[in-house]
Amino acid sequence: MTDSIFMGGGGEGYTEKQTLGLKYANRHGLVAGATGTGKTVTLQIMAESFSNAGVPVFMADVKGDLSGLAKAGSETAKLHEPFMSRAQTIGFDDYIYESFPVTFWDLFGEQGHPIRTTVAEMGPLLISRLLELTEAQEGIVNIAFRVADEEGMPLLDLKDFQALLVWVGENRDTLSLRYGNVSVSSIGAIQRRLLVLENQGGDKLFGEPALALSDIMSVDETGRGRVNVLAADTLMSSPRLYSTFLLWLLSELFEELPEVGNPDKPKLVFFFDEAHLLFDGAPKVLVDKVEQVARLIRSKGVGVYFITQNPDDVPEDILGQLGNRVQHALRAFTARDKKALKLAAETYRENPRFDIEEAIREVGIGEAVTSFLEKKGVPGIAERTLIRPPSSQLGPLTIAERREIMSSSHIAGKYEDRLDRHSAFEMLTERAAKAAKEAEDAERAEDEAEAAEAEYKAARRYSGTRVTRSTSRSTRKTESFGDALTKSVIKELKGTTGRRIIRGILGGFFKGR
Fold it and tell me: What is the pTM of this model?
């Protein structure tokens, strides 16, 4: 099996073949360029090449075009007409049309297999990012997660989280003494943001069965890496949900995968399209987390490739870790564009044969300025490169073709049916039922005691027997402390059943454990 993947090059005015070494493919990368310059095709040929090398791929299909990876291209297809001549120009001698093992995923379960995680796995930081919470509101989310963890309450879906927030609100006085101020207004704001998320369909992301990482890191029966395509055309209408989900997936890979050092090829390659959505308005703590993941996840054998229109969209500390570059054309119409173009050119290793800044501005569709890591991880000299043509179909599959592939998938039926395990919501519901029954029994006992007392007094009055003052005083003296306490509790419960049921559920929940 090859130790590199062919990216393009060759031909008059261009360098020789440009290859990306598999040994350095986990050192991350960047694919950048203006709209319509060929980024999608570059993603397609990279996914094909990694798959053929036995490397699984995960990528978001923002435009719906990448589904064509599951079907072989054709010489008769209009979009493929110029590819044979380009293959000859760049020396792509073994160019053939072929399909690849694609697994379709969809958060909404419409264009792919449902893909889910649990609220607990998402964690307080990413939940707060997803809901666009303030610092004070994020603090309450952290308190809720701490309580759930201490008391063994699984947080699986949104109804679990909502029920727990109600408990936090009812017990805010006690929790404020322990953790700091817990305000009703902040809890209300969180609940409203959860409602917005539900209305956007985000509740479908949370629940079980949750995604097993092994299902996106597998190979087919021939040893080719599976290409996992996340349907994101609809998801892009909720950009915060899109970026938070992909960041969660990266974080899960980072947390769960073992250290592998410097493998001969990646265990998984992860493409993060529309990368600017990850960083727009992100707090520093989140950017720091992304930087940490990018810096350390390569030792887990995962390569991360950011795709964006402008390299300036990626923070400098993260951009510096992206060793493999494919820079399509940038259009410099404004002062900001010109500055970004200059900065992009400065990140490449100079080539005396041409001006990099000028080349980035002039390359045509399907061309790019490339630089890939060489021996000992040293960046290669920038080269003008004709990107190789794809072997799979350009453009999307039909709905029928997509459904056929989904029905024959190796995970067909595994994630389609949602599970609803015993979790925080059920625990609180059971506590509610128990508290309600105890309050009802106490009130009934009081009513029976009062009725019995009234009947006793009536019987004494009709029988002519008088209760003297001394007898009455003697009775009160001999009444036990336990009897008095019981009567006091019963009296306290009377007439306040509804309110005390709620307080019994939520206020006495943990005391009853």
Answer: 0.82
